[in-house]
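Incident log, support desk, overnight shift.

02:14 A customer reports that sequence design results differ from what the structure should imply. Their input is reproduced verbatim below. On-call engineer (initials T.W.) acknowledged and began investigating.
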């Protein structure tokens, strides 16, 4: 069963063995060290998840659905950047975000829009960056904190772009900038030869990508900036594996991020296909 009701489990804070139903850790005093019996299951589920691959599968599946909802629109490309672009109506039905849906109260689009894309080149480039950046973030922060950083950064990127009035937007690029922000935060806080190398490499990538965004039409630079800040701050709050081991609380936070994202898609589909 998903919940462990008896036996022992490791404390999410200190990693030492306690009764699963203990009110507080015998060693460090942390409350509910067994996380109400969900700690072991959270570790098992998050530990087995290849998040970069999961993001790829979800994004590709949703892109295919967005094309199938309005196939004729996908073949009206005026230039290579519009190749196989889903229609706006299809993206809205699946959870496109922006100032317009935000003011309508559709908060869930902050999460659903991360996994939607506006053209073939858009999804290809974003998924290539996810595959490039997710592994080093996972290595430095752990698989659970990778999920939290990606989700928080993507949502905060859209919060900023919606706040400044970008009417419609989709894409994982804000979350991608969040991964860059997390790596920059790690390099800056770690210091030393390795820290400086990480800071310079990923800081230069972030700067070049941000500047490049100003020379392309339709790029949500506000979302990029908000995503970078979200990833940077998330990394500072969560800390890397060098500061502390990933614990049960991190894994529960990751599962919560995945659960809220799943709920967001249910709300988006329910709302989008009823209108």
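02:41 Re-run completed on a clean worker. Output:
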């Amino acid at each position: 069963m998903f919940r462990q009701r008896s036996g022992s489990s490791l404390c999410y804070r200190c990693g030492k063995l306690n009764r699963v139903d203990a009110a507080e850790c015998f060693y460090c005093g942390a409350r509910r060290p067994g996380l109400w019996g969900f700690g072991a299951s959270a570790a098992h589920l998050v530990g087995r998840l290849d998040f970069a691959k999961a993001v790829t599968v979800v994004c590709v599946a949703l892109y295919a659905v967005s094309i199938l909802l309005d196939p004729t629109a996908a073949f009206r490309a005026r230039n290579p950047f519009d190749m196989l672009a889903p229609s706006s109506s299809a993206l809205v039905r699946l959870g496109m975000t922006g100032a317009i849906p935000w003011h309508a109260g559709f908060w869930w689009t902050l999460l659903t829009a991360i996994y939607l894309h506006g053209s073939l080149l858009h999804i290809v480039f974003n998924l290539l960056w996810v595959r490039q950046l997710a592994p080093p973030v996972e290595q430095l922060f752990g698989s659970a904190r990778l999920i939290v950083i990606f989700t928080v950064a993507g949502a905060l990127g859209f919060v900023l772009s919606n706040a400044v009035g970008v009417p419609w937007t989709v894409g994982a690029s804000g979350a991608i900038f969040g991964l860059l922000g997390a790596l920059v935060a790690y390099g800056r806080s770690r210091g030393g030869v390795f820290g400086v190398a990480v800071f310079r490499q990923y800081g230069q990538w972030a700067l070049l990508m941000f500047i490049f965004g100003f020379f392309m039409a339709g790029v949500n630079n506000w979302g990029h900036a908000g995503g970078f800040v979200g990833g940077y701050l998330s990394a500072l709050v969560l800390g890397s594996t060098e500061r502390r081991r990933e614990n049960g609380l991190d894994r529960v936070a990751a599962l919560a991020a995945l659960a809220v994202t799943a709920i967001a898609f249910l709300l988006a589909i329910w709302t989008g296909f009823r209108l």
